[in-house]
Amino acid sequence: MANTVLTSSIIAETSVKILENELVMANLVYRGYENEFDNRVNGYKPGASVSIRKPTQFTVRDGAVSSSQDVVEGTTSITVNKQKGVDFEFTSSDLTLKIGELADRVIKPAMVQLANQVDQDLMALYKDIPNWVGTPGQVVNSFADFAKAPERLDLGAVPSDMRSAVLSPTDQWGMLGSQTALYMQDAAKDAYRKAKLGVIGGVDTYSTQNVPTHTVGPLGGSPLVNGANQATTYAATKDTGTQSLITDGWTAAAAARVKAGDVFTIANVYDVNPITKAVLPHLKQFTVVADASSDGSGNATLTIAPAIIASGAFQNVSAGPADNAAMTFLGTAATGYAQNLVFHKNAFALAMVPLVAPPGAVDVARKSTNGLSVRVIPFYDGVNDVSKWRLDILYGVKTIDPRLAARLSGSP
Description:
Helix content is 18%, strand content 31%. By secondary structure, the chain is of the alpha+beta class. It has three domains: 11-54 and 75-125 and 347-403, Major capsid protein gp5 fold, CATH 3.30.2400; 130-212 and 339-345, 2-Layer Sandwich (hypothetical protein PF0899 fold); 217-329, Elongation Factor Tu (Ef-tu), domain 3. The strands form five sheets. The protein has a six-stranded mixed sheet with strand order 4-21-16-5-7-6. It has a six-stranded antiparallel sheet with strand order 9-10-13-12-11-14, with no helix packed on it. Strands 3, 17, 18, 19 and 20 form a five-stranded antiparallel sheet that branches. A hairpin with a 2-residue loop joins strand 18 and strand 19 (372-381). Helix 1 crosses helix 2 (99-123). The chain is globular. It comes from Microvirga alba. InterPro entries: Phage_coat_Gp5.
């Protein structure tokens, strides 16, 4: 069979199919916001965004007398601001290869790198998640360890369908090793031999080397809440979901005492069920949104999430923190921990859109499948008889509802 001269369209179509096959995290998150972007004939430039409404909540009336409530809706947005690409060269003879040969030699390695980048950007959203179960530094090596995350989701009234977990290779093998004594049918045995965890406790479980490591800030001192009455309202924080928390007791004049993604609890501030408002048995966890330093007196103002709301339809704590309430951070200062995630599909979102076809570019090809889109542009070096090619993708990632996810570590 004669070889075919490969075109940008053929390469783009092959590339987008390989990209889909190589993604892990990206295939587990919500993709519907791609439909919110209108179908532009010429594609998108970085910076395009859509607004997303957050779900509202209500309190239940007791008795026959009507008590109207304001409908308070927060908004957020997802912006396609991540343009990633891989560039390479072909000689004229290369372009007479069969697409199968070219896909194995060049396109697949390129798309593996792009797929890893998308998954890494999604996994980096762990910093938005305040719930962190288990003991940092411990390997997840039993069903009891693993179950702590879906249990936390259950206590938070997270829907039990469309749940996924992404574990680091170390935790994956810890889980596999703990299951070797269980009776399994042939299909399950095959899955374990191939290191595919499958569904565990109703959670579709995967492993990837893209699970990030979070290094806890240097901390220092004995941090305390500085001042009572620091609870806020949903109306004041409905769009950001964050608030400032005034603290003291830190080591004085120290840069970056806390790092974005650090998780802490406050003494006597317990979590509540978002539906019933019943007080739960664990302290409410908060994540630090931005790095913060202490001043010369050991004071620091932290930007935290979620905002502390002590009453009303959006109540999320048993009570606001008291003055001088002790703050306890998870993990050891300046130590790194794998950030396994267990989450409902709607916790995170990925939106990938077709890139613009630049004016003046010749033979631009854009191919889309199942919400993924790849653009291919060739340009020719006539001096050296070399065709240079660029593969590009444009996408955005966003944490839509942090309540729907939990970080997971093992237990001693």
